[in-house]
Amino acid sequence: MDTYARFPIELVRGRGVWLWDRQGRRYLDAVAGIAVCTLGHSSTPMRRALSRQLGRLQHVSNLYRIPEQEQLASWISANSCTDRVFFCNSGAEANEAAIKLARKHGHQVRGIEEPLILTAQASFHGRTLAAVTATGQPKYHQGFEPMVQGFRYFPYNDIHAFEALLERCEADGPRVAAVLLEPLQGEGGVHPGDPTVFRRIRELCDAHNLLLIFDEVQVGVGRTGRLWGYEHLGVEPDAITLAKGLGGGIPIGALAVKASVDHFRPGEHASTFGGNPLACRAGLTVVEQLERQHLVDHAAAMGQELQALLADLVARHPRQLEGVRGWGLLQGLVLRPEGPAAADLVRAAMAEGLLVVPAGPQVVRFVPPLVIRRRHLRRAVALLERALQSLVG
User: Phi, psi at residue 164, to the nearest 5°?
Assistant: First the structure.
């Protein structure tokens, strides 16, 4: 179906941070499947682990205990503020599970007949109907109305707007069940959360007995130079949603929660494929390599390097470039309105042999594999500068 405006290249092979198309041309990959290929392409640990797993067992369903699933859940719980994990297949499914959990919290804990969930403008939470309704960008809603009821929006990082919205919603009694936020907005333009704002939201959630849920689909699993995005903000959420980098290229999603807010009971939520042995083996391999190769610290160091290189690029091209923002290996190069559009710069970079991805009309996003090295980052920024020069002369 014609659901993608695809770029005109056909990628057939990858190794590390490099991809090759059918004509044999090589590309430096700073997209990583949109923050997915944590260990790079065709990594030796991943190939070996998945081959062994396929030789044993790939799928049985959640009718039975799955040792790989239990091991991965234990790792997530031991290394985060959460205690229990539900596995699914994608970030959108993880957010759907979180939305259902929030509604049950509203009914069961706050006694609300029609619970509300507060989310941020310019957010992105997925393409399923409830997740896209939670997404605070009207362009994703167009053509799919009526949207799911029960969502209200406020400007990201605006604590006064949040307080006013919460007060309006609660004016006649309890109506809000949860707040769903990205620690850093990725698709919305690479906007990091303000720790002061998030701490105040945490206080208000505690005061009103609301769930605070963080969508860590893009920022989690080490990408930002810390294992979880919430670590940058100085607050602990009640639940986090995961996907993308957790499987390193094999589809997996997860909702991880604190035991105190685990309201699901058997039969209330499920997934046929979620957390099967193959997907969980991929997840286990990713987290094992995060530790073995010290990739979280590496992402922090490489993120500083990338941010500095991009800042130098901005200084050399102040008429076209405005700045750089982000955490770790999730960085956004902000283009001036009078400069080239992000999509045009992405296409020009592709012609130079560099893959990057837009994050809105005026931001070019870098989300490379966490195994990227300084020499790769220097080459990436050099190729991007050539692309920029090809557009502006």
Answer: -65, -40
- 244 catalytic residue (yes or no): yes
Residue of 76, 55, 51, 129 whose CA lies nearest to 275: 76
Q: Residue 337's pLDDT band (boundaries 50, 70, 90)?
A: very high
Sign of the CA dihedral running 376, 378, 380, 386: negative
Pairwise CA distance, residues 285 & 74, whole Å: 14
The C-alpha atoms of residue 187 and residue 384 are separated, in whole angstroms, by 20
Q: Is 104 a catalytic residue?
A: no
Q: Tokens standing for 302?
A: 């490489």
CB atoms within 10 A of CB 292: 9
With 90 as the cut, is the pLDDT of residue 393 above it?
Answer: no
What phi-psi label fits residue 314: left (phi over 0), alpha (psi between -120 and 50 degrees) or beta? alpha
Q: Which is the catalytic residue, given 124, 151, 154, 366?
A: 124
Model confidence, pTM: 0.97
215 is catalytic: yes
Q: Which of 87, 244, 258, 366 is catalytic?
A: 244
Three-class DSSP category at 354: strand
- In 3D space, the residue among 60, 69, 50 whose CA is nearest the CA of residue 273 turns out to be 60
Domains of the chain by start residue, with CATH: 11-30+294-392 (3.90.1150.10), 44-292 (3.40.640.10)
DSSP-assigned letters across all residues of 44-74: HHHHHHHHHHHHH-S---TTS--HHHHHHHH
The span from the CA of 104 to the CA of 161, in Å, is 26
pLDDT digit string, tens, across residues 182-193: 999 999 999 999
Sign of CA dihedral 342, 348, 350, 352: negative
Q: Which of 29, 154, 198, 215 is catalytic?
A: 215
d(CA 180, CA 182): 7
Q: What is the DSSP string of 253-304?
A: EEEEE-GGG----TTSS--SSTT-HHHHHHHHHHHHHHHHTTHHHHHHHHHH
Structure tokens, 45: 């640990």
Whether the Cβ atoms of residue 240 and residue 214 lie closer than 8 Å to each other: yes
Give per-residue pLDDT as tens, 124-144: 999 999 999 999 999 999 999
